[in-house]
Specification:
The chain is of the alpha/beta class. The chain is 37% helix and 15% strand. The N terminus is likely disordered.
């Protein structure tokens, strides 16, 4: 059993609702936040270092680097996070639309939301943080070292930047899955269906399109024609067990972990880096502000990831050409 799985097993005996949130995509609740604070209180923790030279020394010796990324990375490319002040699409926040229940009630509205996001992403480009991660992976791979991105983002910007070793734990905006036959495939159609053309405007005054369900994206597998849904992990849904297992293996074997642009409040990803830190592996957080997990890490570099990450991952003087 993996370290974080032990934590889940223990928590399950205390509160079944908490374990559901840990095994499914969900926001941290007050119980978990309190538990994290107690864990911090059990250790005599100094403020994480912001010494870049010290980080670079550790980076130069690391052979297996895990990089956990969240919405803060993509925000610098102009991608909305749909969280906090102003984080609305029309009058909705993402957690109210990104559920199986919402799709069942109103598939037209949910598809408008995801159509808007798909079309928006086609206009966005990877920023310096995405590019620094991709360049680092390519460079270190030639030295027999590995860099793996474990991302909560569904926007494909890591892939477009050139990263190869990517684990998308929340799925992919440009993949669809059939509600009838289960077939999943990449889908880059723009628009994804005729009825959604020109729909999805985020303005709160926009009238919902109320598209008939038979005109929404449909499966093209022979003899199926079932309703398609975005192949993303919605709130309350279980993460892909294969991808989660791969992430566990990466985190178990890494000798350096970076947490980049994530709020550390969405589980189970929020417990990945703290569990790595608990086994004594250096963890460096790159974020615009402190998170609930900051005090458990070795390093914290505050500021935009596009500014702080490139110098941290640049070629070290000890690296071979």
């Amino acid at each position: 059993m993996q370290p974080w799985a032990h934590h889940i097993a223990f928590t399950a005996s205390q509160n079944p609702m908490i374990v559901r949130q840990l095994t499914c995509r969900g926001l941290i609740n007050s119980h978990l936040h309190g538990h994290l604070k107690r864990l911090r209180g059990c250790q005599d923790m100094a403020r994480p270092s912001s010494d870049l030279a010290s980080f670079r020394e550790i980076f130069s010796k690391a052979n297996h680097i895990a990089i956990i990324t969240g919405s803060g990375v993509s925000a610098e490319s102009g991608v909305p996070t749909f969280r906090g002040t102003g984080g609305y699409w029309r009058t909705w926040q993402s957690q109210n639309l990104a559920t199986a229940e919402a799709f069942s009630r109103n598939p037209s509205l949910v598809w408008e939301f995801y159509h808007y996001r798909r079309e928006l992403m086609l206009t966005k480009k990877p920023n310096p943080a995405h590019k620094a991660i991709a360049e680092c992976e390519e460079r270190l791979s030639k030295q027999g070292r590995t860099v793996t991105v474990i991302t909560q983002n569904i926007d494909e910007l890591h892939c477009r930047a050139g990263s190869k070793n990517i684990l998308e734990i929340h799925g992919n905006l440009f993949r669809t899955r059939c509600m009838s036959c289960g077939h999943e495939a990449a889908n880059y159609k723009s628009p994804i269906c005729v009825a959604l053309d020109g729909k999805g405007a985020p303005d709160p005054e926009t009238v919902d399109a109320q598209i008939p369900v038979d005109q929404l994206p449909r499966c093209e597998q022979k003899g199926c024609h079932g309703l398609l849904r975005p192949a993303v992990v919605w709130f309350g849904e279980t993460l892909n067990s294969k991808i989660l297992s791969q992430a566990e293996q990466v985190l178990d074997s890494c000798d350096l972990c970076l947490v980049v642009g994530t709020s550390s409040i969405v589980y189970p990803a929020a417990m990945f880096a703290p569990q790595v830190a608990a086994r004594g592996v250096p963890v460096a957080e790159f974020n615009t502000e402190d998170t609930p997990a900051t005090m458990r890490f070795t390093f914290h570099f505050q500021g935009p990831c596009g500014s702080t990450l490139p110098p941290a991952l640049a070629r070290h003087e000890t690296e071979t050409k």
